[in-house]
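Sample intake sheet
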Amino acid sequence: QVQLVESGGGLVQAGDSLRLSCAASGLTVRSYTMAWFRQAPGKEREFVAAISWSGGRTYYADSAKGRFTISRDIAKNTVYLQMNSLKPEDTAVYYCAADLSPSPGNPKYDYWGQGTQVTVSS
């Protein structure tokens, strides 16, 4: 059974940093494209970042470029999202997702975590 468990969310001030973690079980992150999406109240789920199964390619939404970094630790079977210079508009529930061969920015991933709340105050 595949499980993706996010952690690391919280309440921070604008300009602060957070690192989200996604611990995977039932699959190996080196075999899947892993991604982060987010959903703010009243809005659709949107793509944030993805890392290819090989680890050789990363993809970012324009809103994340230059501020967020996606990475993975194969030994820990965990994916991370380092978020710097956070803004109030980054407030959302952040979800981890996994798929064997997705279009990275398309939310049609096979597996999803339960999400972790990130709140950025101004």
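Comment: The CA atoms of residues 42 and 106 lie 19 Å apart. The radius of gyration is 13 Å.
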